Amino acid sequence: MALRRVMEEKDLGKGEEIQGDEHGAEENPEAQYEKQNHKFKIPKNIKMKNLITSKRNSKSEAVFRPEVVDVDFEAIECIADSPEDPEEKSQKSKIKIANKIKLPDFMKRQKNSKYPEAPSVSLDFNGNLEQNRLADAQQLLVKAEERLFGSNNLGRTEDEEDKLLRDSEIFRERLKFAILDSFNEENQETLKSALISILQEEAQDRRWAEVSENQRPIWRPTECRQKIHDPLLKTLVETRLKNADGQENKADKLSTSLKREVCRTGKQVQKDLLIVVRNLKECYPADFDICRTYAQLYHQTFSARLQELTRSSIEFEDCAYILSWIKIYYPKDVLKHKELEQHINSSLLGPLLPEEHLKRLEDQYFSCKENEVRNWLSNAFDKEVDKWSDGFEPELIEGCYFGNLAVDVLPLIEGTVKEVNALLECESKSWSLLCLLDSSLLSYGTSLKELVKRKQENIPKILRDSLVNIYVFKNYVQKVEHFFLEDTITTRMSILMDLRNICHTYFLSRIHKELKPVYRKLWTQTWFAGNSEVVEELVKAIEKISNDFKDLKPACREELLAELHVEVMVEYVRRMMKRKLKLKDKEKQEAAAEFMSQDSNEICSVFIKLGSKEDWLSKILPKLSEILKLQDPGSLQIEIATLARDYPDISEQHVLALLNLKANISSSDLRRIKGCLTDNRSPQESSTAFFSKVLVKRKII
C-alpha cells in the first residue's frame, strides 16, 4: 500500500533493509493473539518512553530516543515471558508501568473529579472509546505507534501501519465529537478526557519533532489543538449562534424580525459564555485560556452577523435597536456581567462593528431623532397657539398658572437627549437637539406679538400662563448651559428674554397707565406741600397691583414686580428732571432732598416686601438728594464725579437737569461741573443701567 511504500522509500534511502513478517499464518495462536492486541515483548536494550513529558533532542538525525522514565523492565520482561494467560500478563505489565509514571498536575486534578475510576480489567482501544476514555485510547495508539516506529524496529507490516492509521482516524473523529458536544453538561467528563488526549498528542508531537522527518510516522505532527480543537470551537460557536434564532424566548415579543434575531443572538452569547465560565473553565488546562478564546469567538461571530444585517438599508427602529445592543446591552449586560467580567478582558475584544458601519448607523439614528424632536416641538407649540382662541382658560394648579407647554416639551427633549447620548456617547451632539427649540421659540414669540394686538378678554390669562412657560424654559437652558458654546447660550437666552418682554410690556403698560394719576403729582407743588400723602397713594396702588398677580407663579410674579420696581424709580427720576419744581434757596433744596430719601425708603421697601431683588435701586435717590443739599461748587464737582463713576450711563443732560433744580447755581459753575463729569466718567459699562432709561430733554441750557 501507499503508506508502506512511502515508509519503505524513507528506510531504503538510509540503506536499511525492510524485513517483513517471517512467520505469517504459521505463528502459534498465543503469538497471534498477542499481535492482535498490540502485546509485545520489550527487550532489555529498549527503554520505555515517557508518554507525557519529553525533552528536545538537538540531534535530529539520531535514532528516535525519547526521554525515559524509571520503569522496572526486568519485571516487565519476566511478566511477558511467563506462561500465564496473555490478558493477565498484559494487565500486570500495565499496572507495573502505571505505578512508575509521574502524571502532570492537570492530569492529577482529574482524580478528584467525577471521572470514573479505572476498571479492574484493562480495556482495548475500542473498549476505551466505547466508554469515552479518550485519553486512555490515545495512550494505546501511542504505544502502538512507538512499537511500530520505535528504535530499530524494522519488523512492522503494512497491515499494522494501516490499522494504526485507521484507529488514529477513528480516535480523531471521536475527539471532534467530544469537542462539538462541549456544552452538553453530561459530556463534561468526556471533554476532560479529550483535552488530556490533546495534551498527550502535543507531547507526542514534540517528541517526534526531535527526530529527523524521514524517521517519523507520516501523520506526525498531528497538531490536534491547532487543526482540530480550535477550528471546531469556531464551528461550534457559529452553529450555536445560528441556531439561536430558532429558539423561543422573550425576543418573540419584539416588533420586527431583525430585532428578534439580534436579541436571540445576543442572549445566546451571554448564556453560552456563562456556561463557559461556570462549567467548561474547570475542564480546561489554564494554558488554553478558554474564557478568552470563547469570548473572542462569540464576539467575532456576533460582529459578523451584525455586519450582515446592517450592510443594507434598515428601518429606524431596527437601527436604534442594534445601536442599543452595541452601546448598552452587550458591553454592560454581557461583557460586564458579574460572573463574566473577571474572566473576560473586554478591552481586548475590539469594537462590535467596524467604524464605517457604526458611523452609518449613528448618522441614520441621529438624523431620525432630529426629525422626531423637530416634529414634536412643532406639534406641541402649534397646539398651544391654537388653544388661544377667545374663551380659552389656561389650567390652574393650587391657584397658580401651571405652564403646560414647557412641562410637556422639556421632558421629551431631555429624555431624547439622554437616549441619544447613551447610544452615541457624545454629549455635545446629543445636547445639540436642544437647539431645535430655538426656532420653535421664535415662532412662539411671533404668535405672542399677534396675540397682544387682539382684543380678547382671556389675553391676560394666556400671557400669565406663557410667563410660566418662558420661566421654565429659561431655567432649564441655564441649568444645561455648560453643554453649549457661550454664543449659543447668549442667543437662546436673548430669545427667551424677548418673549418675557412681550408679556411684561403688556402688563406693565397697563400698570403704568393705572399709576399715571399718581405719577403726575410727583415733584409738583402738591408733592412738595404734602409729600407723604402722594407716596402713600403710590405705595397702596403698587400693593393692589401685586394682589392682582397672585395667580402668577411666585418666581414669575417677582420678576414682573422687579421690573416694575425699576420702571417706577425711573419714572420718579424722570418726573424730577422735568423741572416743574424750582428750588430757589438752600432750605427748599434741603427739604426736597429729605423728601427724596423718604420716598426712596417707602417705594423700595414695598417692592422688597413683594419679592423684588433690586436692592441697588435704594441707593439712587439718596445719591441724588446729596447733590441737591450741597451748595459748594467744589463739593458738587466731587459728588458728580462719584455719581458718574457709579453709574456710567448717566449723561450730561441728566446732570444738568438735576443741577437746574438748584435755581441758585451759576452758569459758570455748571460749565465747570460739566467738564468734571467728562474727566471722571468710567469707561466701563455698568451691569445695572438706570439713567439710560430716564428720558430728558436734550436742550437744557
From TrEMBL:
InterPro entries associated with the record: EXOC3/Sec6 (IPR010326), EXOC3/Sec6_C (IPR042532)
Record-level GO cellular component terms: exocyst
GO biological process, any: exocytosis
Disordered, as annotated region: 1-37
Top-rank taxon: Eukaryota
Family statement drawn from the similarity comment of this UniProt entry: Belongs to the SEC6 family.
Name of the featured protein: Tumor necrosis factor alpha-induced protein 2a
